[in-house]
Write a structure and sequence with these properties.
The protein is of the alpha/beta class. It has seven helices and nine strands, in the order βαααβαβαβαβββββα. It has a domain of about 150 residues: Class I glutamine amidotransferase (GATase) domain (Rossmann fold), CATH 3.40.50.880. Helix 5 crosses helix 6. The protein binds zinc ion (ZN).
Length: about 240
Amino acid sequence: MSINVTVWNEFRHEIEMENVKAIYPNGMHMTIKSFLEKEEDLIVRTATLDEKDHGLTDDVLNNTDVLLWWGHANHGDVRDDIVEKVCQRVRGGMGIIVLHSGHFSKVFKRLTGSNCGLKWRDIGEKCRVWTVKPNHPIAKGIGDGIELEHEEMYGEPFGIPDPDELVFLSWFKGGEVFRSGCVFNIERGKMFYFQPGHEAYPIYHNEMIQKVITNATKYVAPTCEIIDTNVGDWIKKPLEEI
Ligand code: ZN
């Protein structure tokens, strides 16, 4: 069965910053789309902040099984009513993958119920993304982990609730570690947070990173019908005799 995927990107750095544009000339959402759509079972579209309704109209959201989210400097520009619609659909069963600086997005904060703070430093140091759960479907084909020559450092303590599944743990040359691949069950939906992806480095061109994101897209895809969980069912007649 096909999975309908929407890749959402803030898409301002790639327009405003020459060094980022050089890495992602069409925006990182297009790079992510192009490797995801190599998969036969994934139907991929994109949406960006400056489109009408941030590209997330009811029609788009209602036809999205998995949403990917990359945002950074403009989280505050994302409309609260759209944020609530996204969160409501995740609670109802849609999968979501929050990438890198999306840790501070309204969507991630609302779904985790936390402030999601962390330590950070950008000097382009080496990062090792260690696999800590090798039998997890998201880690399939990754082996011991992924080595990134240059990445922004994200360090603990990461202000999130304990994840339901910890798949990756990153180490940085400066000494910090970070829970970099976390799965959360959000009512009927699944959410995966994945740390790599600073805009100034070609992280989403790395084939191993692409493999993780592809695996994760399939893992968080709904396994049950997506419904509105903001309503209760009145059960007038008990199942058993009382
Ligand atoms: Zn960054």
